[in-house]
Design brief:
single chain; 23% strand; 7-stranded antiparallel beta sheet; 5-stranded antiparallel beta sheet; alpha+beta; 546 residues; disordered N terminus; 18 helices
Length: 546
């Protein structure tokens, strides 16, 4: 079972991975991009050594970049391995998705081939999944598109934790290799585009030839390209788009000329687009397709001039990053959700609760504060043009946080609050003991489904672990929360069909209330304690009835 600390470790690793992936496209030259790829493996994926082997025009692979050891870098950088030897390696060992792992028990036959390699020293493994000094792990980089063109291979060695990567680590390395292939392809494309632009500026006598070269690079680029106006009344209007961009957005070129990127961007990404600078600006936004859906893209801007004093245009490279965003969301979801039920896990529950609570409890303003507010409205009073207070009144700062308050359990005065329902299943252990954990897991999944079905849209159902669940339901009074607990309990106690048999579990609910001034742990502990009070009360009633 996953410990509570592991989601935090995954989130930290995920942040590092996001950063090194983002860094891949910041390098300006192909050489810088290759070195960034190697450095990213060491900085973000937890390996001590990384080597980037790039396919040459003749098909052989050359060691183009190395990271993690200056001695090894000096030994093998620039050396070439034959394509035949590399294909032999990529056909051996164990296939981990797109990755290829060759354990030391098989790799000894490769010691004498012509692939540049290094040997690390270390003790023999003590555990089955421990990394051996002569284990080999390769991540092929394939060109995007319909074919299977090999751009190169990333080889890694010596994981920092000393163990072979698990499923999550394998997926992270595979995703990184895919993004590295895109970055290398883009670096080559940028180099070609830059050469074309240099010819346009410096070779006035060969202007037509340079224009044709640029046109072909623009029109036949594998990713989207657009040229837009800069300045004037039509600033930002798209003048020209290539076929790749038209296909990506499902819009004909004639229709694209009626828009700017500001017309096509997702409403939530308008601010990101507006903050993107024209020269060298980068942004990841969603653009609207003709069918009403949106696709994640990466924009990169460059400024182009026809002549030294002529009109300026904006050249924008549009890269489809939908797959990468989907992988990021999947990885983030795994780190914040329970693997069995798909519900938010303990870390995510605490994060959502923490976002609602501030450190100061809600309190009514003093009379002196109200007088100060009246004076502020009559004069300047420290208020900005939008009516918000940027200072303090009565010695206490005012903010615009909506304080979370707890209704009174004794008197229903109409107060609505954030109810925290702590649910503990009754009789679940006996199901596990009698029918096995597989049946117990099926019961937990069904209980999660019934809880989720029984709450409103916007409410949170989370699994703390074991047979404990928590429901966050905002905008409820004391009676509303009690009714909700009854409905959820009645839904849970219905028979659950597992493997052709019907099993039953009970449920005890404790209702706590979140309010500003409380910590997350205090809120959960309050609901937990009330649940145990109810459980004991129900047990007494049961004994009396018996």
């Amino acid at each position: 079972m996953e410990t509570e600390s592991e989601p935090y470790v995954r989130l930290a690793t995920l942040r590092q991975l996001h950063q090194v992936v983002a860094d891949l496209n910041t390098a300006r030259s192909l050489a810088d991009t290759l070195q960034t790829v190697a450095d990213g493996v060491v900085a973000g994926l937890g390996y001590e050594l990384a080597c980037v082997n790039l396919v040459r025009p003749d098909g052989d692979l050359v060691v183009a970049a190395f990271s993690g050891s200056a001695a090894a870098e000096a030994l093998i950088t620039g050396r070439v391995g034959s394509r035949e030897s590399w294909e032999r390696r990529l056909s051996m060992g164990e296939a981990w998705g797109e990755l290829r792992f060759i354990p030391h028990t098989e790799g000894w036959v490769l010691i004498e081939d012509d692939v540049p390699q290094w040997h690390t020293e270390g003790p023999e493994p003590r555990f089955e999944d421990e990394w051996h000094p002569q284990d080999r792990l390769y991540a092929p980089m394939w060109a995007s598109g319909g074919g299977r063109e090999l751009l190169g291979v990333i080889s890694v060695d010596r994981p920092r934790n000393g163990r072979r990567p698990g499923a999550w680590g394998q997926e992270a390395l595979q995703m990184y290799a895919s993004q590295a292939a895109i970055a290398i392809s883009n670096a080559r494309l940028r180099a070609n585009m830059q050469r074309a632009l240099v010819r346009l500026e410096r070779e006035q006598q060969a202007l037509r030839a340079s224009e044709e070269s640029f046109r072909q690079a623009f029109e036949y680029a594998p990713s989207g390209m657009a040229i837009a106006e800069m300045g004037g009344d039509q600033h930002g209007r798209l003048l020209r788009t290539n076929d790749a961009l038209c296909r990506l957005l499902g819009r004909p070129a004639s229709a694209m000329r009626r828009y700017s990127f500001a017309d096509l961007v997702h409403p939530e990404d308008v601010g990101t687009l507006l903050r993107t600078s024209a020269e060298g600006g980068r942004a990841e936004i969603r653009l609207g397709r003709r069918d009403g859906t949106y696709v994640w893209v990466s924009l990169r801007n460059s400024v182009v001039a026809d002549t030294a004093d002529g009109p300026r245009f904006l050249l924008t490279h549009v890269e489809d990053i939908e797959d990468r965003k989907r992988h990021e969301l999947q990885l983030a979801h795994r780190a914040s959700h329970d693997a069995l039920t798909g519900l938010p896990n303990s870390a995510e529950l605490r994060a959502r609760l923490s976002a609602r609570l501030c450190e100061r409890p809600h309190a009514a303003p003093y009379a002196s504060d109200i007088q100060s507010l009246d004076a502020a409205y009559e004069g300047d009073g420290g208020f900005g043009a939008d009516g918000f207070d940027f200072g303090a009144v009565g010695g206490r700062p005012y903010d615009h946080h909506v304080h979370t308050v707890a209704p009174d359990d004794e008197i229903d005065d109409g107060t609505k609050g954030l109810a925290v329902l702590f649910c503990d299943l009754d009789g679940f252990k006996s199901i596990n003991d009698r029918f096995g954990h597989q049946t117990g897991d099926a019961v937990l999944v069904e209980v999660a489904r019934r809880l989720t079905t029984g709450v409103r849209d916007g409410d949170t159902v989370a699994r703390l672990g074991g047979d404990e669940f928590v429901v966050l339901a905002d905008g409820l009074g004391a009676a509303d929360a009690a009714d909700l607990a009854v409905r959820l309990r009645n839904a849970i106690i219905l028979p659950i069909r597992v493997g052709g048999r019907g099993v039953r579990v009970g449920a005890s609910f404790g209702i706590g209330w979140a309010s500003c001034g409380m910590s997350v742990e205090e809120v959960l502990q309050s609901a937990d304690q009330r649940m145990y009070v109810e459980k004991r009360s129900r047990a007494k009633v049961h004994r009396r009835a018996g």
